[in-house]
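ok trying again, last paste got cut off:
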Amino acid sequence: MADKPDPQPVAPKASGRGGSAVLAIVVPALAAAAATFGGTFWSTRVVAARCGTHELVVSPTHVEPSKPPGPTLPLDAFLLNIPDTNRKPHPTKVTMAVEFADDSKVAKDEAALKALIPRLRDAVLGYLRRLTYEELSDPAASDQLRSELIFRVRAVGANGAERVLITDLVVQ
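nice, full thing came through this time. structure:
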């Protein structure tokens, strides 16, 4: 029996579809990029609509100049112990100032400002003593802290108060 030579392997025919492998990679990548861009674009527009802003990018031509600060009344530092959820006390130091509007009657009268200091300290201290360590040390809660403080400052008679500036906050 004569050995038949092994058949030579036959090379596959070129079908002219050599670019299909590239397309198989590029098309899904483009689709993913488009979906990512579309999702990001849509979600930022929804957030902007809910927040009441129409433009997300702030350019120098659209920024309103902020007015200069009005008269500011610095308060002495508040030293207190703030408990955590386990009732462990944490020494805390809070220094703040109250900024008044320029046209405020209270801000123009220095004697009236000084007369307000004990009331302001009492209102601020009363609020701070109700907080827990977790509430006070959370950086995301600082706007809530300022809004509560300005509410209490105005409630004791400082009607011209525009903002509360927390100049120092140390919680151990």
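cool. Residues 35 and 140 are 31 Å apart (CA to CA). The beta strands are 72-74, 78-83, 89-100, 161-171.
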